[in-house]
Structures are given as structure tokens and as C-alpha cells.
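REVIEWER CHECKLIST
Item 1: Sequence provided? yes
Item 2: Single chain? yes
Item 3: Sequence as submitted:
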Amino acid sequence: MPKSYTDQEKEYIIRRLKDEAMNCMSVYGIRRTTVDELVRRVRIPKGTFYLFYESKEQLLFEALMEFHEKIEGQLLQRVERMSGRELDVESVTDLLMDFFRQADEAPVIRLMSSGELEILARKLPREQLAAHFSEDAGMAEMVIARLFPGMENEAENVAEQFGDAFRTIFTAMIYGHEGGTAGNGNTDSLRLLLRGLVLQLFELYDSRKTNRE
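Item 4: Structure as written out by the authors:
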């Protein structure tokens, strides 16, 4: 009969599993992270793991999304501090560069090998992935609406247009380490790509602003 846990114990076990999931992915990658290794590190029976998660993939996805939400929260805090200030292409590009660099410096991101995220995604329910991409779009809407006042009613459409582009750059940045493009050259290329998107956002904002006036 499975052991019953208090709410405090459940919270502790989930926190430890997520922490060790991130540690294991940083060291072993997604494919070689196993339930056996996770329960050994957390010091719980294997059966207990399945009281909390249906699969290893579900835990790894939740741990990755928690990390994702953390750095996005930090981005939003910086955006809030910039709200109301006179912005230009360079200052917004700097903001996004810092966000991308912070993500890139995380060991779990730098050590992911090509194809592992796709393997993880294939083993997850489609609705779980759809919810994540929906949240991504919501984050883009908030950032755009706060940085570009007056575009609140258009932020959803703009976020959809630019969200995929930013995700593509982010993915290219992660996998760029495998092709040996890490370093100053890669940083310069990343800034060039981000600046191009930011420039288009400013052009769109100025155009819509002129039309409203």
C-alpha cells in the first residue's frame, strides 16, 4: 500500500524532483536522465515517483517550464521598469540580448543535444504543449503592450507574428553550440537578428501611431 504524505512532504518531494531533474539534464541530457537516477538522488522509492508524475517526460517538461517561467518573470520585471521611458531600438535590443544570454548560460540549456527537445515533445500530450505555446504568446503580448503603449488592442496579432521569429532565434542559439558557433561571433549574429526584429517592431509601432494620429 503506498505511503500517504502530508501536503508539506508532497511539496518537498516535488521540489526536490524538479531540482534534481534540472541537475540531471545538465549532466546527462534528457535521454539519459532516468527515473532510477532521480529517485536515488531524492531518496524516495520508485513507486513514490509515480504518485506524483505519470512519466519521466512529464517531470522534465515541468522542470523546464518552471525554469522558462523564472527567466520570463525576470524579463517582465525589467520591462516594467522600462515602461514609460523613451525607448529606442538599441535599448530594447539590449534587453532581449540580456534575456537570451541568461538563458544561454544556464547549464541545462547549453548541454542539451540536438533532437532531445523534439523527443521529449513527442512523448507529451498535445494539449500540454499547446498550453505552453499559448502562454508564450501571452508573454509576448504583455511585453509588446508594455514597451509600445497604444498597441494593446493589436498586441495579440503582433505577438503571433513576432513570437515564432523570436522562438526560432532562441532555438538557433541553443543548437549553435553544437556547430561550433558559440563565442563572440555567435553573439554578434544573435544581436544582429534580434535588432532586426526590434527594428521592425519600432517601424510597425511608428506606422500604427501615425495612422492613429
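Item 5: Key structural point noted by reviewer: The chain has one domain: 56-212.
Item 6: Recommendation: ____
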